[in-house]
């Protein structure tokens, strides 16, 4: 059974749609590269679930980035994804973070930046402050600002599993939907443990057993880092010749590390010469 999966669902008698995402393996992949504090592990899980839910609401081929920044102990938390539900993420922090630290305690005065980069068309960016109760409330504010569609979001993570739900009014001519409040009240009763242990059909039955709900085929959610030796080499070529020579003189090589997955790509003087000659040496790869 796949433990990283997203389901979409639709109410037949209401102009409302929903999504459920449940993550485990890809969540652990993101956490494995760093020794994150407990509160930050949970936040990254919520952020992964949120990015998956957001990606599923958008009809485009391309990339999405959900980034949190602030002046608190945590300066950055970001999840990158694409329309194929491939995610990766990382966070930067400095100092002690208590296990029960709130969003504001972690980020201080902060904001969330959501960037949509379609393969074709214009790039879009939305910004929301982090002065709401939690990440879910910040995302609801984002939808209120960007799409003016009533949206409910539930996010959970415990360091091992992450999950989320999204409920949203479909665009209608009237712009009103009397059913959303009722369905939102039902959705609000979902508990973390239920999303961690029940499959999507059971979750929907538990919440909406008196409603007519259509559940669509699931989509796999995966972790994949986009780093490569070629990209690392391209980054080295942006350095000045003086910088490159200084590093080689001191260390004998240049190590390029990926912040997302901790892979290290090493280049010695021969590799550097090959880069500038337009060729590639694979023998020195670590």
TrEMBL record:
InterPro entries: Heat_shock_Hsp33, Heat_shock_Hsp33_C, Heat_shock_Hsp33_N, Hsp33_helix_hairpin_bin_dom_sf
Main location: cytoplasm
A Pfam family that the UniProt record links to this protein: HSP33
The keyword Nucleotide-binding appears for this protein: no
Disulfide bonds: 225-227, 258-261
Subcellular location: Cytoplasm
Family per similarity comment: Belongs to the HSP33 family.
Protein's UniProt name: 33 kDa chaperonin
Species, as recorded: Shewanella inventionis
Lineage: Bacteria, Pseudomonadati, Pseudomonadota, Gammaproteobacteria, Alteromonadales
């Amino acid at each position: 059974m796949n433990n990283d999966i997203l389901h979409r669902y639709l109410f037949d008698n209401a102009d409302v749609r929903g999504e459920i995402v449940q993550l485990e393996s890809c969540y652990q992949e993101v956490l494995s590269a760093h020794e994150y504090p407990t509160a930050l592990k949970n936040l990254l899980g919520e952020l992964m679930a949120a990015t998956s839910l957001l990606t599923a609401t958008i009809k485009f081929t391309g990339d999405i980035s959900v980034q949190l920044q602030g002046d608190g102990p945590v300066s950055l938390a970001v999840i990158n994804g694409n329309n194929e539900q491939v995610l990766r993420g990382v966070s930067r922090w400095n100092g002690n973070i208590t296990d029960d630290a709130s969003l504001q305690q972690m980020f201080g005065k902060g904001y969330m930046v959501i960037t949509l980069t379609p393969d074709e068309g214009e790039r879009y960016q939305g910004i929301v402050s982090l002065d709401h109760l939690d990440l879910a409330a910040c995302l609801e504010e984002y939808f209120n600002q960007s799409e003016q569609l009533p949206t409910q979001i539930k996010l959970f993570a415990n360091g091992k599993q992450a999950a989320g739900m999204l409920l949203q009014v479909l665009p209608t001519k009237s712009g009103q939907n009397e059913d959303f409040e009722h369905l939102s009240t039902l959705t609000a009763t979902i508990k973390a443990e239920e999303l961690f242990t029940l499959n999507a059909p059971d979750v929907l039955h538990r919440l909406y057993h008196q409603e007519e709900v259509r559940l669509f085929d699931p989509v796999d959610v995966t972790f994949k880092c986009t780093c490569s030796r070629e990209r690392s080499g391209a980054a080295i070529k942006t350095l000045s010749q003086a910088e490159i020579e200084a590093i080689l003189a001191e260390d004998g090589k240049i190590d390029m590390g990926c912040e997302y997955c901790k892979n290290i790509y090493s280049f010695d003087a021969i590799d550097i010469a090959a880069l500038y000659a337009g060729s590639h040496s694979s023998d020195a790869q670590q």
